[in-house]
Amino acid sequence: MAEDTTYDLIAATGCPTGIAHTYMAKEALEKAAAAKGLTIKVETHGQVGIENEVTPAQIKAAKAVIVAADKDVQAERFAGKPMVSVGVTAAIKDPEGLIDKALAAKAQGELSEEVANASSDNSSSDEKESVGHIIYKHLMNGVSHMLVFVVAGGVLTAVSFLWGITSFDSTAADYNSFAAMLKIIGGIAMNLMVPVLAAYIAESIGKRPALVPGFVAGMIAITGLPVSPETGLIDAGGAGVGFGFLGGIVGGFVAGYVIVGLEKLLSGMPKNLDGLKAIFLYPLLSTFITGLIMLGISGPMAAINTGMMSFLEGLEASGPIVLGLAIGCMCAFDMGGPVNKAAYVTGTALLTEALQAGIGTPAYNFGTNFMAAVSAACIVPPLITAFAVIVGKKYFSKEDHDAGIVNIVLGCTHITEGAIPFMTKNIWPVMPIMMCGSSIAAILTILFGVHDPAPHGGFLVLPVVDGWYLWLIAIFAGVLVGGILYVIFKRNEYHKNGDKVVE
């Protein structure tokens, strides 16, 4: 379509990874709009950047706006328009309802001229974001930018182990210079994880000015408060105790809201000094204030971080069944949503510590085993659907069958979201079935002692997985049990419907 084409509705979608949810929401909204006889343009914020970008003219001409995102999609562009703002999965589960809400917001805005004038320019509809979703959106904006660093750094580090587990060590018998370079590059990428996380949480809140204090907060989170070992006093040349991933999250929010506060504080300055604020006052003052806050809370944050790690280690001490059950249920609960991301991000944080601790250490063994369990649990759900549509083909519609076949590729590459359309049609009992399969895979992975030093990639990283054949057995067991249960459910549903496929 031509660039000046107008649409009834404008939408923007974005998920933390920018791989699956983003485009599934786009497709769902487009189908729902077409069914209602409406035109819609959906802008996607994926891992490759912004695609199908909407223009100011199209925003102005649209009747309403739908924002279905768990990351920053520059929603301020839509100020003054009737708008519904929700998480990305809401557009997948109920696109028709979102469209109805957006159009209802438009209708309410037209009730009377007095009502319209009573609303502020920035008030777009009765559909306000909850505080929880706002916090989650800021957090996931940081996570989405962080994940690519984790994946790139983790995989490069893992590949370096192909030459030997100590091949990066110049004093070791299996030393290889190329492996050492891979580990150095991968390590640098992994070390950027927390600063990038903090910076883009801050950027989501305070926009571009918040990047500087955000990066500084992230760096403080990994270095901690430097203290002289001799005097116990703050010493720029001393060693600090970092407070890691959790500190990066806190630092990102601190930096973002410091910028918001400074913007309000300095709003009375003359307009011709805006350039001075942007290039000098904001970075200087925000870095100073954020830095002081971060250094001030470094002690408590280090204690909290230590406590969290002790809790996870306590889960490990509880046995593989308890730990595997927790991992499996979290990963399959919402297929790439907040709970799934909590498990995955925890895995990447533990993996980062594992790679920094070094091969053979308790931290390495726990972190890589935890990551292997998380990866197995994330791989299983889409493969369950693939198994089910192949074994129980007559119980599924052609659309579901085709989606299930595609899920072979998605599952093998660690993209859990492919199972979402199947779960949304029958949350009960499909969700418990997926959780059961994922839990079996996670428990067996822990029991078998599989170690995965790569944070993503699915079966593409099999060469670097220690115990890869046992890992495949664990995953296949989860898929087999989950797949059989799913086929049984669909068969019963089929016969209850008079031997007809339930759409």
UniProtKB/TrEMBL annotation:
<dbReference type="InterPro" id="IPR013011">
    <property type="entry name" value="PTS_EIIB_2"/>
</dbReference>
<feature type="transmembrane region" description="Helical">
    <location>
        <begin position="239"/>
        <end position="259"/>
    </location>
</feature>
<keyword id="KW-0597">Phosphoprotein</keyword>
<dbReference type="InterPro" id="IPR050864">
    <property type="entry name" value="Bacterial_PTS_Sugar_Transport"/>
</dbReference>
<feature type="transmembrane region" description="Helical">
    <location>
        <begin position="146"/>
        <end position="166"/>
    </location>
</feature>
<feature type="domain" description="PTS EIIC type-2">
    <location>
        <begin position="135"/>
        <end position="503"/>
    </location>
</feature>
<feature type="transmembrane region" description="Helical">
    <location>
        <begin position="178"/>
        <end position="202"/>
    </location>
</feature>
<dbReference type="InterPro" id="IPR013014">
    <property type="entry name" value="PTS_EIIC_2"/>
</dbReference>
<keyword id="KW-1133">Transmembrane helix</keyword>
<keyword id="KW-0598">Phosphotransferase system</keyword>
<keyword id="KW-0812">Transmembrane</keyword>
<dbReference type="Pfam" id="PF02302">
    <property type="entry name" value="PTS_IIB"/>
</dbReference>
<keyword id="KW-0762">Sugar transport</keyword>
<feature type="domain" description="PTS EIIB type-2">
    <location>
        <begin position="9"/>
        <end position="104"/>
    </location>
</feature>
<protein>
    <submittedName>
        <fullName>Fructose-specific PTS transporter subunit EIIC</fullName>
    </submittedName>
</protein>
<keyword id="KW-0808">Transferase</keyword>
<dbReference type="InterPro" id="IPR003353">
    <property type="entry name" value="PTS_IIB_fruc"/>
</dbReference>
<feature type="transmembrane region" description="Helical">
    <location>
        <begin position="370"/>
        <end position="391"/>
    </location>
</feature>
<feature type="transmembrane region" description="Helical">
    <location>
        <begin position="209"/>
        <end position="227"/>
    </location>
</feature>
<keyword id="KW-0472">Membrane</keyword>
<dbReference type="InterPro" id="IPR006327">
    <property type="entry name" value="PTS_IIC_fruc"/>
</dbReference>
<dbReference type="InterPro" id="IPR003501">
    <property type="entry name" value="PTS_EIIB_2/3"/>
</dbReference>
<dbReference type="InterPro" id="IPR003352">
    <property type="entry name" value="PTS_EIIC"/>
</dbReference>
<keyword id="KW-0813">Transport</keyword>
<feature type="transmembrane region" description="Helical">
    <location>
        <begin position="427"/>
        <end position="448"/>
    </location>
</feature>
<feature type="transmembrane region" description="Helical">
    <location>
        <begin position="468"/>
        <end position="489"/>
    </location>
</feature>
<dbReference type="Pfam" id="PF02378">
    <property type="entry name" value="PTS_EIIC"/>
</dbReference>
<keyword id="KW-1003">Cell membrane</keyword>
<feature type="transmembrane region" description="Helical">
    <location>
        <begin position="279"/>
        <end position="297"/>
    </location>
</feature>
<dbReference type="InterPro" id="IPR036095">
    <property type="entry name" value="PTS_EIIB-like_sf"/>
</dbReference>
